[in-house]
Amino acid sequence: MCHSLSPLNIRPQYHQATLSGRLLGACISIPVSQSFIKIVDIPFFKSGTMDTFTSTEVDAQLQHSIIPSNFVVHWRYVCNSLKADSATIWINLSDSQQGSRASTLIGCSLFLNRGMVTIKGAKAHTGTPQCQQCWKWEHTMGMCHCPAICCPICSGPHMEANHCLIARCCHSNPKATPPIPPTPADVPCSHVHTCINCSNPHAANN
């Protein structure tokens, strides 16, 4: 899943000066680049349970960590595999051209998801592909082995546009007390979404 803590918003600061009676504008800006770091071996499940730490819970912890949130451009929290009990956080960090901010963080440890984890350097990347057919990471539609398109909301074998018409969660239940009407086709599904990648309550394309 993809997130942004507090995207860096560097705005040039303008200073005014006068010369020969004319008002001049001088623009001072900071040359910036991006560095890439990762946090490895993060506990994915809460102690003694199969309940996962949600991206919201991870976000709250990162906000109070040694990683300066105002310099985090983008981050992604991913379970290491379907059968793994650990996860990795990939972070794009706004940095100086020398990478001094990342250099300060690499090798440091922090407490995350009730475990002591380590920050490591990561290679620059253009982005991990996400299949638009099955909504899993690491491959594109041309390499997908899924026989039919999947809904990113519920992983059912239908298009997202038809979710409210086909998915059981949006069907009516007249036997319920009180009776539950169907979700209108032109209204977004208000039920709990389930990501096929991390099982957290969000759509796979969100």
Shape: elongated
Distance between the termini: 7 Å
- What's the overall average pLDDT, rounded? 81
Biggest β-sheet: count, sense, barrel?
A: 6 strands, antiparallel
β-sheet strand percentage: 25-35%
Q: What is the number of beta strands?
A: 8
Fraction of residues in helix: under 10%
Uncertain parts: 1-31
Number of helices: 3
Question: Quaternary state, please?
Answer: single chain
Based on secondary structure, the structural category is mainly beta
Q: Please write the string of helix (H) and strand (E) elements.
A: EEEEHEEHEEH
The side-by-side strand order for the widest beta sheet comes to: 1-5-6-4-8-7
Structural Rg:
23 Å
Would you give an account of this structure?
The chain has helices at residues 55-63, 100-105, 163-166, and strands at 2-3, 13-19, 22-28, 33-43, 72-79, 86-95, 109-112, 115-121. By secondary structure, the chain is mainly β. The chain has two domains: 1-128, no CATH class; 129-206, no CATH class. A six-stranded antiparallel sheet has the order 1-5-6-4-8-7. The longest helix has 9 residues, at 55-63.
